[in-house]
Amino acid sequence: MGIDTAAMGDEVDLEDLLSVLSPEEVAALVDEMAADPDDKHMPASVRTAYRCEKEPTGELNRDSLINCINEIALNTPDKEEKVKYEPGVKRGKTFTPVYNESQMAEMDKADAGQVKLDPDEEEALANASVDDIMALADILNTNPQDFVMEAYADPLQYFEPDPPNETNPKEVLEKLKSNDRDCKDVNLNNLGGISEQEFCDIFNTLRNNDNITKFSACNVDLSDFAVQTLCAALDQNSSLKSLSIENNRVSPDALADLFESAASPNNGLLE
What we know:
By secondary structure, the protein is mainly alpha-helical. Helix content is about 40%, strand content about 5%. It is built from 11 helices and 3 strands. It has helices at about 15-20, 25-35, 60-75, 100-115, 120-125, 130-140, 145-150, 170-175, 195-205, 225-235, 250-260, and strands at about 185, 215, 240-245. It has a 3-stranded parallel beta sheet, with no helix packed on it. Helix 10 packs parallel to helix 11 (about 250-260). It is flat and about 95 Å long. The two termini are about 60 Å apart.
């Protein structure tokens, strides 16, 4: 556009740059920027490259403009069709998508995951009337809508169960007592047979432990008395960052005390 771009530095003043452009160059630049008609950051008048340079013939008369457009449309002859239109017949070439091997594999995998009834069942269900579906739903003692949804429901997926927790509570207790540096994450989830006294002993060791950062005891039948021991230990521990005791039979009052202890500035709990 007549500008030596090689002489431009990293920092260019936009006002100085526009001042050296001619009106034609500015208009061309605006036309290039108006590539997206949906760009809300541009004024509506510059969102298209069309510029009407004709002089206005008078004030806008909306009714006269609409009548003029209708008249032009009625007087413009229709273009002759090369292939005569026939209902249900496609004119021209039919598009056939082409898929690569990876796309075909993904499509086959998606089709395999969908529920497909036997052809006879598909045909019977497709040709069934509303009364037939209601009769079948009544026989199965279910809702007609639920019956159709259950017929095409996705099959249940099997997920491997979590491996059993092989943590030894007595070993954990000894490591916490000795303030073992390697004992930072204690996981007692789903362990059965841990007595209330053992939990109290474990929680009491947290008072003088400055290495543990995460403690989990979910689904271990934790008692309220043990939780109260944990609350007292939290006030003297600043290294523990994460605590989880979900799925235990803890009373609301004990939970309230635990929340109050967790909110205390004396500990370092984050979650």
